[in-house]
Predict the structure of Carnitine dehydratase.
Amino acid sequence: MTAAAAGGPLTGLKVVDLGQVYLGPYCGLMFALMGAEVIKVEPPGGDTIRGIAGGRENPAAMMLNSSKQSVVLDLQSEEGRSALLALADNADVLIENSRPGTMEKLGIGWETLSARNPRLVMGSGKGYAADSVYRDAPAMDFPIQALTGLMSVTGFPDGPPVKCGAAIADFLGGIHLFGGIMAALHARGTTGRGDFVQIAMQDVTHHALASNIASFLLAPDGFADRAGNSQAVLKVAPYDLFPAQDGQVAIMCLNDRHWQHLTRAMGRPDLAEDAELAEGPARCAQRARVDGWVTAWTSRHTRAEIFAALNSAHVPGAAVRTLAEVVSDEDMRARGMIHDLPHPDLGTVPVPGLPMQFARHNRVPPIPAPAAGADTARVLGALRQSGLSTRSEDKN
Amino acid sequence: MTAAAAGGPLTGLKVVDLGQVYLGPYCGLMFALMGAEVIKVEPPGGDTIRGIAGGRENPAAMMLNSSKQSVVLDLQSEEGRSALLALADNADVLIENSRPGTMEKLGIGWETLSARNPRLVMGSGKGYAADSVYRDAPAMDFPIQALTGLMSVTGFPDGPPVKCGAAIADFLGGIHLFGGIMAALHARGTTGRGDFVQIAMQDVTHHALASNIASFLLAPDGFADRAGNSQAVLKVAPYDLFPAQDGQVAIMCLNDRHWQHLTRAMGRPDLAEDAELAEGPARCAQRARVDGWVTAWTSRHTRAEIFAALNSAHVPGAAVRTLAEVVSDEDMRARGMIHDLPHPDLGTVPVPGLPMQFARHNRVPPIPAPAAGADTARVLGALRQSGLSTRSEDKN
């Protein structure tokens, strides 16, 4: 019934991606993997993320810029600025996550771009919103995690706050920016006019704390921000990591039915029949004993054995995997979530595939990220042929 | 130059939100806050998230369902199913994040809905993809954090893995699902046909680990997944939390310029002139001494004083705030990111505002979330008047 088309759902859209590091590039990557034509505009020397690893190119640059074209422009120069304006004049979308004020200082702010191309949707991702008291603060993922409380809710109750190991504010920012731009494009379908979409990492990270804030509101007095691998407020148990023969497993009994199922998986029907353990609050009160029984079971098995048993018993849980294991995941490869693409210096890099599946569009395999400026001459040549004055490619 | 319209960019879209807990409801919230008409369909008794806090309604239910309508339907009954079909027949979008197979079992799967309303875009969020080896595993945020390695990269090198305190896989899932649905709506503008969009929390969480995976690839031998509040691979320092008089501050010198600026903020120009400290690797090698100097400065000041000094010096950093401080943030309120809305039992609840700012659309203040089924009679009455046979409202 559903015939899948060869191109992605955003085929035909033209995107100028001035994104840097993670936030902007991840937003641009969504466009690229969905079939839009994405031109990554980089400064001479390339996006700073490329060089951050010292002598070698950072694999992250390749992971977040696949399927894009790269044009190097010196936006400090008149030629570079003219070329950028010409690209924006022909684009549906422009993405940027430079420091506040940078675009205006370069003479390529929203007012300028929109006056020239009223259909343009410009998406800006910042650390703090333009109307925030913190708007001038240098913002990166790490300080945003501190200020939003994400750090405060991560870690153990008797230990210090700790950051979420992933640059989560950046990625939440990038995908919110994508969603906002798509909403503006939707409105353009009716109005014919573009829009200026702004998101702040502070705001999107704050919103992702909704469940923590709810827990705090339910028990503000003596609330411990951090609950380790357990639950801050809900009276549920077991809910933690447990030792396996080859690592650890996460097991959560969010309700009493999960506990009943878990006891069977553990081969302990006697526990299922113990009325004193039937309800969450009672199990919480005896948590050391409950966790001990679970540990006695998990420590005799491998993570895979436990995961399989949990799945059969319909108990939420999973193996705790190391990054080395995740990077070598074969199922992710089979499903097109990781593509091993060649890089001239790095060998192969595990490049992410589009994390959305569309019934009517086949997933397009990613194309290796270009070297900085690989498409400068061709793209600017084409612009010039269509009568737009640009000369900056002479420099690259 | 930019005239802002009163309605949101998605005004006119009709969304049926079968979302549960966090993922689906957050996706639906984006539609609602951007002006779409969102009908939250709940089972008798309401979305399970409402009751999870025991006797009181969970504030999270109100935070994620503002500006929606609520219709209670028993989808196990023929009447409930008919009503859902009638709603979907008239909708642009249907969102769901039920367990794999649930929609098909209820007779409201994609093939059925799409055959009746070819313009419908259905968005499904799951823990694992339909083609994953884990597709039948019960999935929630906690096990997804374990399996994806997010837990493995969070915490201290000498401590155990720890979850990111926020339900980050849920929120990443919800906003990716929103982005995917918007892309399908964009394609519908050309093809006239809807689509079936699927995302998996495993995949979107994996992709948010791109920077960690890049670090691993650069130094796979002896790679420590966890770096506490510091940096796993980059040779940069200082980069950590430091003690202030009233808590902690995050400070990161990602490059040598940041260090130069920091020493001035600290009133230690002597350190700026010390050639042995000029470069990151050298400062890393002397990390205890470097951190000691920073601590000597931070421990004499409050977080606010330090944050102000860092901002003036253009050094990335911020106060580590507790959840109690975040919940009472006045700037978030002034900017419309938190709205204190009344709830019959909970008093006021800090409800999130739309985290995207559109130049051409004023932000619409959120309307308090409805009680479960508050709109059942009215919505189904209107459906019946338009000739569609539904009777399930008799039950509620």
About this structure: Residues 391-396 of chain A have pLDDT under 50 and may be disordered. Residues 168-191 of chain A form the longest helix (24 residues). Chain A has two domains: 14-207+329-395, 255-315. Residues 14 and 234 of chain A are 48 Å apart (CA to CA).
